[in-house]
Write a structure and sequence with these properties.
Structural class of chain B: alpha/beta
Number of helices of chain B: 11
Oligomer: heterodimer
Order of helices and strands of chain A: HHHHHHHHHHH
Radius of gyration of chain B: 19 Å
Shape of chain A: globular
Number of strands of chain A: 0
Helix content of chain B: 25-40%
Helix content of chain A: over 70%
Number of helices of chain A: 11
Largest interface: A-B, 22 and 29 residues
Number of strands of chain B: 10
Shape of chain B: globular
Distance between the termini of chain A: 38 Å
Strand content of chain B: 15-25%
Amino acid sequence: MRLRQGLFRAALLASVAVGLLALGALVVRVVIDGWSYLDWALLSNAPSSDSTVAGARPAILATLELMAIVIVLGVPVGVGTAIYLEEFADGRRWYNRLLEVNIQNLAAVPSIVYGILGLGFLVHGANLGRVLLAGGLILTLLVLPTIIIAARESIRAVPQGVRLGAFALGATPWQVVSKQVLPAAIPGIATGSILALSRAIGESAPLLMIGALLYAPKDPTLLSGFVALPVQIYNWIRLPQPEFHGLAAAAIVVLLVLLLTMNAVAILLRNRFQRRW
Amino acid sequence: MVRPVADAPLRALDVRAEDESSSALPKAGVFDVRGLTVRYDGVAAVRDVTLEIREREVTAFIGPSGCGKSTILRSFNRMNDLIPGATVEGSVRYHGTDLYAGDVDPVEVRRRIGMVFQKPNPFPKSIHDNVAFGPRVLGLKHDLDERVERALRQAALWDEVKDRLGRNAFALSGGQQQRLCIARCLAVEPDVLLMDEPASALDPISTARIEDLMHDLKREYAIVIVTHNMQQAARVADRTAFFSVAAEPDADGVRSGLLIEMDETLRIFTQPSDSRTEGYVTGRFG
């Protein structure tokens, strides 16, 4: 019996180790490769064919702008959808069920498909062109199902007694949602949204699909061409000179720092507002 | 008894309406229930209930599980509306106004008829904000702190929480949470308190405090309490209604709940007129 316990524990530890070691090796390798390129020039300079002055400033800005678009558009729409589905939709109606199945499926659609959608409908259909706004809209669509699912989970976690208590005091359905359910669900919604956002900023496939430029030396605006950070990394890696590979590694470190910061905020929010019902 | 009401009173529901409708009863009726049947998805949970709830009295609903007593209670403030598939036949008149008439807004009904639930359900907010929620929703923002204090005093909770009104309500004990939920109802100065097994999740000491509270509150409110605890009904109730489950399935093939009899509590427990009541209160059935 004790032997089996020990074996079981060893198997579990081995599983954990696979993930940790792979991630650790990746991070160590990237930091070693990029260390000498991690400087202010990387953050403040534009990309250049001269590796000694090349930087990722426009790409970093583009990624921050994409994040802003996803937050401004994705979170309200996602939370709104979640509120409708959880609080108002009659789950016995076929159209609500259809909606639900659709959202579950959309969350599993590969990101490149969203890229194709964006290319067809936004870049060409709506004639937006290959601009940052189009990229932001695609990323919004991409993470919307994730935000909806996370928001639904945290709305559902609010105990029914809270709703009944509020209704019994004469609150309108809207007051119940806006004054009780939503405030109680916000920590979960924030955590889920931030995690969805980290997925969005790591994406390169859909952005490549709509033809994010390979070279964008100027600071991006909503309606200009753009290179997001993951695409910039991809560009540098494809170049033959080893200096650019170092730059790519340094840019990966920047992207990782960005991601880890966001995840840390998500964890902090979760711990800070954790509720025991 | 005329109380200040929310800024948008529904005239048809106004308590003053009783002036026209009150008849020869010694204590005015608050609810006049006639032939009430409540169905869930077409299946009757409780059938053809006719009874009256009087003001400044505690009325207890007793009976075995599944007899529909909670369902009847929830039809008094239209909480059944929140259950998909629930339908109501018959009439519930509140001070003469049919609560299920087409032009009655359930939100308006619930503002006058408070409800306390089986499991204490404080909001995930501070003690103060729990009590202030009702008044805020009704737009009663004037003298909010006094209103909160008055409600907490009425619920016999003030002395225990006055120094920590800003603390989260979950920090309170179960019994304190339940009194907080009662205070939350009282803050909007309702006319009636509906209590659905308010002490079943509490220890005996907390239960006694809630029962004492009901004795105090019935001077001003009509109280209806659903309870599984017959001693509790005997202790707190002026009148008691005994519900049971039909012995034979009805036309739909279900055994729905029925009101067997309603009388002075003492009579129900000592000389009930129905043998089923006697069987239940003496512990031979249920």
